[in-house]
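Support reply, case 0932

Customer input (verbatim):
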Amino acid sequence: MKIVVTGAHGKVGRAATQALLDAGHDVLATDLTRPGFERKPPGSADYRMADLTDAGDAFAVIRGADAVVHAAAIPEPTGNPAHVVFQTNIMATFNVLEAAVRFGVQRFVNISSETVPGFFFPERDFLPDYAPVDELHPAHPQDPYALTKLFGEKLMDAAVERSDIRCISIRPSWVQNEGNYEQNLGPQVRDAAVTSPNLWSYIDAYDLADAIVLAAESDLPGHEVFYIASPDNVGGHDFAAVLKQYYGDAIELRDLERVDASGISSRKAMDKLGWAPKRSWRDYLDADGRALPKH
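Our regenerated output:
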């Protein structure tokens, strides 16, 4: 397929672009970065600069696509004014999806966020109702970024009601790659008391990219939402024990698939997409949370 990847120069977009190329797809990458004019390496993606908050740019890059992976967004709410986060993310998603509908694109992969239930940037204290969190957990967005991601999912619902497009929204956990495992997750590996708002959850960028490829190739009808998180928690802790230790009875503990389970369940993605994660923090860090020599 010809697949457009938006936000292609971000952490998720880069990994997704390469995974789609490796799967044999023809990829048009787009971002705000100005293009270079050197000879393109064999097997690399085409690139076009576009500001997707501009409808004309969105329509220009989506025309002729079979599928879209929409990863472009301001990725968190603290580095920009709230109205900038909201306007940028909402209008980029609306414009790209509208172009996809008008041009008859068959598949749309929307990169949403684990923050939709209320994780990470709450403006008041927030805890999930139960753990591991799954797609049935109520949405309680606590910040402009999470709100844009919830609204993005609502846009997908509307698109499948008015066209033949098939949409999948992926809610990744905290995305890590070889460059940031030690900085981000090292402290939690060493000490479970370094809690995170997503209950010690994370996802490897390349496992996430594998899920994105499956979503882009999927024939699932309508609009489906999937959490994508590694099946183990950061540090490999006994999840039931650390949940009880640090949260008491405030969070209902539900059935676990393994002792060191993640605080977010990806069972639905495994069952319906056939996603099989291959990587763990253990591939990058030692038991003290320090980077292994190869990384």
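We compared this against your earlier run and they match. Two observations from our side: The CA atoms of residues 79 and 150 lie 20 Å apart. Residues 82-102 form the longest helix (21 residues). Please reopen the case if you see a mismatch on your end.
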